[in-house]
Amino acid sequence: ETGVTQTPRHLVMGMTNKKSLKCEQHLGHNAMYWYKQSAKKPLELMFVYSLEERVENNSVPSRFSPECPNSSHLFLHLHTLQPEDSALYLCASSPGENRGNEKLFFGSGTQLSVL
Amino acid sequence: QQPVQSPQAVILREGEDAVINCSSSKALYSVHWYRQKHGEAPVFLMILLKGGEQKGHDKISASFNEKKQQSSLYLTASQLSYSGTYFCGTEIDNQGGKLIFGQGTELSVKP
After folding, report:
1. With left for phi above 0 and alpha for psi between -120 and 50, is residue B84 left, alpha or beta?
2. Segment-wise mean pLDDT, segments of 10 residues, chain B, 111 residues
């Protein structure tokens, strides 16, 4: 148990659907992240939020829309996805003291399949 | 920009040693190591900061040579529980948490 909870664990959606991934952290951290993990590829940083403000958008297509309503919750809203978006989506948090060398705490991920 | 890990995969017998390398083309501020077991979250192992330090955690240790922009993870007397995929993550500045990960090294420890 890392203190970071993601739901759902598995999601199957069609290309015209709209769905959301949810992440919650119980660690009192100020920074939260979305990473994408595709088969045979490295973890790709998608978005970074610090104190509920987006500080990084790593050239992610607009069909992925993040939302951070408070420092404990992070969402990833999905719409009109493509089959190549199928992957494991990992949420992480860190203390967010913005001084580098911050340890990341990962959730177990949502395994997304786009049909 | 993405660090390169080697080897991509390694199979060990229990008790054997292994070294996993992580190389970057950019100057690094820090290197992080994580282990991910199948179906689970990646778990933090250690952080190394520039300055050529070496760290240890039980029988797992790591070094960071900032001049060569390389880090190595050393697993000695491997145990079955060491099996998983090992990722290095690199930071090029101290702006906090924006790790760029290598492609991973899959380690299998057999009895």
Report:
1. left
2. 93 96 90 91 88 73 90 94 95 74 95 93
